[in-house]
Amino acid sequence: MDWPTTEAEAIAVQDQLRxxxxxxxxxxxxxxxxxxxxxxxxxRLAAAVVVLDRxxxxxxxxAVVVGETTFPYIPGLFxxxxxxxxLAAIDQLRTTPDLLVCDGQGLAHPRRFGLAxxxxxxxxxxxxxxxxxxxxxxxxxxxxERGATAALVDDDExxxxxxxxxxxxxxxxVSIGHRVSLATAVAHVLHLAPxxxxxxxxxxxxxxxxxxx
Length: 213
Fold this sequence. Notes:
By secondary structure, the protein is an alpha+beta fold. It contains 5 helices and 8 strands, in the order H-E-E-E-H-E-H-E-E-E-E-H-H. Strand 6 and strand 7 form a beta hairpin.
């Protein structure tokens, strides 16, 4: 598939691929979890994928690819700036991850096809989105304790969950990407965030891509 260069082409790709999203859990055990993030310096970017052992949260592999973005910044189409670099980084890994944890949205997206959905469908790897802020939807007030959740609802559809990963901190926003149910996605994120608001996958990938610029 040719990579889109215009807003209309990109929206058409999202509309075409959206039906391929699988909201159910893939079979098998998740042993290796990858965090993915991209840092920018103008049009220059560094795309990082850091793979952790899910049980211990120890790093087992990483790849960072530096390049140039070829797609403009358009809200709702951010994946088209990031995916080429992230796919290149995934290709460089020695360890194939069982789960992709994206710094961004999955179903919690205006067209229900954010970065996590797009990467999951293209790679076939189960994927989830973990965002610092909600892009669409609203939710009820959460309890203050770690593990408190509330459904993220947009147009009467549950598109994700607000999750408090530490007592009293701001929630993160979890949504399905591909081949993972929402309940399983929330459980993964809570496990991956034993000490801080953001999961270790996101923290390490953020550091790796910033160091790569």
